[in-house]
Structures are given as structure tokens and as C-alpha cells.
Design brief:
- This protein is mainly beta.
- The protein has 3 domains: 94 residues, Immunoglobulin-like (Sandwich); 103 residues, Immunoglobulin-like (Sandwich), CATH 2.60.40; 33 residues, no CATH class.
- Helices cover 0% and strands 55% of the residues.
- The chain is built from no helices and 19 strands.
- The strands form 5 sheets. It has a 4-stranded mixed sheet with strand order 4-1-7-8, with no helix packed on it.
- It is globular.
- The two termini are 30 Å apart.
Length: 232
Amino acid sequence: MPTINSFIRFLHVSPNTTNVDIYCDEEILAKDLAYNKISDYTPTGPEDKRIQIFATSESEQLLLDTTVSVLPSEKITYAIIGTLPEISLLPIFLKVEPIENPEVLVRFANLSSNVPNLDVVFLENESFFTNVGYSEVTNYETILPDTYYVKLKPTDAKEIIFTSEAIELESGYAYTIYTLGLLGDTPALDVDYYYDQIPLLKAETSNNETWKTEKVISPSSNTSPKIIFTYY
């Protein structure tokens, strides 16, 4: 019986931490990953994995040495959070299904270590997510496709402490919107997002070509997730 593969990738949101090289069981997975960048997915067997994170600089300083447990058929984004020397990995699991037009799935992750619990406002003064603490990730909620300005406010206050640039949410897709940075410090508090999609798969054909497949959230409830084959 074939091994059931899982997929892992890394999001660097540790403020004032240099670019990093990431190793899994002493094999490099991501090199020179910069702040607020996300690596490609890597397929991996379901088991405990040793993750080591080194500074990309000449010092090659070891910043984190930890073990994560990867279960079968999981798709995990590990967010590198916290500030040195207390950085850690936060697993953010991908659990989405094809959704109907014209809906959008969206969730929120609070990855800013020095902010209070947050409410997230998309429209007017209505809180879409409430009381989200540091390192917490909400469930997905549906919202209509549109261009939004994401506003953050402390749960126990009315004052808006941050308003994002315009974020366009397209129908038929899922998004994780997250905070990063520091409130009242540098790098400054910010909001960004990534698409939640089924990972890339790579294999070699009999004539040594390489192909990859990508499944994304279906734009229609009447179709399966889209599969794209690319030869190169």
C-alpha cells in the first residue's frame, strides 16, 4: 500500500529575524526565506520530523531546533512566529472543500506577538472575527467577493488600530488573512494574506520530463477542483 503523503511549507513572520534556511531531517526545504515570504509545499511522509532553522547569513546561527508531528494527508503551513530568541512554529492546517460561486472562504490568523486580542472588521463597523488572540487561527467563514479594507481593533475597545490596503477577494477561492509585525515598533503592524490551495505535486515521466499538478478551490459547485498540468 503506498505511503499517504502530507505536505508542509513555511511562512516567515518572525519580526527582526534574518532570512533563514530551513532543514527537515537534515535536508534543506527552504533557502534564504525572507520575512513575510512563504515557501513552496514539500511532500513528506506522515511521521515526526526534525525541523532546524538557521540564519542564512555567514554565521549560519541555529535559531530553532524542534520536532513536529505530521499526520497522514495533512497540508500544513508552519508559521515561524515570535521574536528571537523565543521563536517557534505554529501549524496552520489546510482544511477546505470546493465552494459555490459567488462565495469566498476567508479565515484570520493573529501572528503579531504584542497586540491584544483582536476583532477584524471588513464592512463598516461590523466585526467579522472577534476576540482572536495571538497565535490563534479562526475557522473559515463565507463572504461575498469584493475589494475589502481589513480593519483591526482591540476586542475591548472601539478604536481602529490598523487599516490595510485594498485586498481583492475573488469568488471560488479561500484565503488566510494574517497579521504580522509589531504594534508601535518595527517592523510595523501589517496585514497580508495567502491563498489556501491544494499543494503542488511533482514527478518524472518515462521520458524524463517533469510535470506538476496544482489543485485549487473550484470556482463552481458543479465541477471538481481544477487540475493544471505543466511540462517544463
